[in-house]
Design brief:
about 30% strand; 6-stranded mixed beta sheet; YaeB-like fold; alpha+beta; single chain; 3 helices; 6 strands
Length: about 120
C-alpha cells in the first residue's frame, strides 16, 4: 500500500492533472478516481489491464479511454504527471516526453501537491 498520491505542480503553481480531471464528466471522474484508489492500495503490484509500465520510470493507469501517467516517488508514494484521452494504440511521443520532463522536475524540486480524498 502507498502512503501518498501527489499531483505534479508546474512552475506557475498549476496542477495539470487536477485541471484535466475537472474537465471530465462525472462518470469519467468517478472511474479515474476509482483507479487512483486501486493504485494506492496495490502500488507496485498493479499490472495490465489496470496499469502498465511505459519506460523511463513512467507508468500509466488505464481507466477506459483515459491514460493517467505517473511515477513512483520515495518508494511509498506516486506522483500523477499527466492525463490524456487515448485515441490511438500508441502513446504520443510528445506526451511521454512531457511526463519524463515532469518526473525529472519533481525529482529535482519536489514540486507536488497531495491529493486529499
Amino acid at each position: 500500500m502507498l502512503k501518498h498520491l501527489y499531483f505534479f505542480v508546474d512552475e506557475r503553481g498549476n496542477c495539470p492533472v487536477e485541471q484535466a480531471l475537472s474537465e471530465l464528466t462525472e462518470k469519467e471522474d468517478m472511474k479515474v478516481r476509482a483507479y487512483f484508489k486501486i493504485l494506492k492500495e496495490c502500488g507496485h503490484n498493479l499490472r495490465r489491464p489496470i496499469a502498465d509500465y511505459l519506460g523511463s520510470g513512467i507508468y500509466e493507469l488505464r481507466p477506459h479511454s483515459h491514460r493517467v501517467f505517473y511515477f513512483f516517488f520515495l518508494n511509498d508514494s506516486v506522483v500523477l504527471l499527466h492525463v490524456i484521452r487515448k485515441k490511438t494504440d500508441k502513446i504520443p511521443i510528445n506526451d511521454f516526453e512531457l511526463c519524463v520532463m515532469r518526473k525529472n522536475e519533481v525529482e529535482a524540486l519536489e514540486n507536488i501537491k497531495e491529493i486529499y480524498e
